[in-house]
Design brief:
This protein is an alpha/beta fold. The protein folds into two domains: 9-164, 3-Layer(aba) Sandwich (Alpha/beta knot), CATH 3.40.1280; 183-244. The chain contains ten helices and seven strands. The chain has helices at 18-30, 48-53, 57-60, 70-73, 97-109, 127-131, 150-164, 183-199, 209-222, 227-244, and strands at 9-13, 36-39, 65-67, 79-83, 94-95, 114-118, 135-137. It has a seven-stranded parallel sheet. Helix 1 links the parallel strand 1 and strand 2 (36-39). The longest helix is centred in the C-terminal third of the chain and has 18 residues, at 227-244.
């Protein structure tokens, strides 16, 4: 039986600057993650620089836990992913962000506690840290410039996690207060438009008339018009009709 997945825990190993810890905290909290663990932060903890750079995120997240070793930081977790480049000298499953997060979500839905570990800013994770992970997530980057900062790496994986729990449609068009037009009203407008085009001899020959009418209809139906937009189109046609009327004699 599956349950609602528990969010992964972000673990920063040997982070160097408080500013970078704060930026990572801001990125993860922006995207719905709120549990951060630190392993031997170089400048100690708590950190005023981290608080400042988190833009208030640290104050709203769960209290940051600090550990002396990575083994202690992951002791209560069931599955750990290392965010790093592909390891060269060890056999380890390597995932893309999408496939890695899918694996994490499946396990989290079974009740497993998930952790993602990130290395220090300057050199990334060392092999001993990677060896403690079950798998590796490698973020594809420009091979000529592959350096991602800590907050970027955290944000990319957190975003993939958020997407898996996101029921927002891929495309949204907010019509505001105007509802989509009823087909009856759209048909009234299209009939009026065709009549006016007939008056102006827009349809040059009988042979092309059906095709041109169909193309015109396709343009307007494809636009998924609102009620207000159709009223506006009626007004445009009315304005054009008024303009071509001869002036009344004085």
């Amino acid at each position: 039986m599956t349950t609602q997945p528990t969010n992964p825990i972000i673990i920063l190993v040997d982070p160097q600057l408080g500013e970078n810890i704060g930026a990572a905290a801001r990125a993860m909290f922006n995207l719905g993650l709120d549990e951060l663990r630190l392993v031997k932060p170089r400048d100690g903890w708590p950190s005023l620089a981290a608080d400042k750079n988190s833009a208030g995120a640290l104050a709203q997240m769960q209290p940051v836990q600090v550990f002396e070793t990575l083994a202690e930081a992951i002791a209560d977790l069931h599955y750990v992913m290392a965010a790093t480049a592909r390891p060269r000298d060890m056999l380890k499953p390597v995932y893309t962000p999408k496939s890695g997060i899918e694996e994490c979500r499946t396990r989290a839905a079974e009740g497993q506690k998930i952790g993602w570990i990130f290395g220090p800013e300057r050199m990334g994770l060392i092999n001993d840290a990677i060896a403690k992970s079950h798998g590796v997530i490698t973020i594809p980057t420009n091979p000529d410039f592959s350096s991602l900062n800590l907050a970027q790496s955290v944000a990319l994986l957190a975003y993939e996690w958020l997407r898996g729990d996101d029921d927002i449609p891929d495309k949204v068009l907010d019509p505001g207060d105007s509802f989509p037009v009823e087909q009856k009203k759209l048909e009234e407008f299209l009939t009026r438009l065709e009549d006016e085009l007939e008056t102006k001899r827009f349809f040059r020959t009988e042979e092309i008339r059906p095709t041109m009418k169909r193309n015109i209809r396709n343009m307007f139906t494809r636009a998924d018009l609102t009620d207000q937009e159709v009223r506006t189109l009626h007004g445009m046609v009315s304005a054009l009709i008024e303009q071509r009327k001869p002036p009344e004699p004085k």
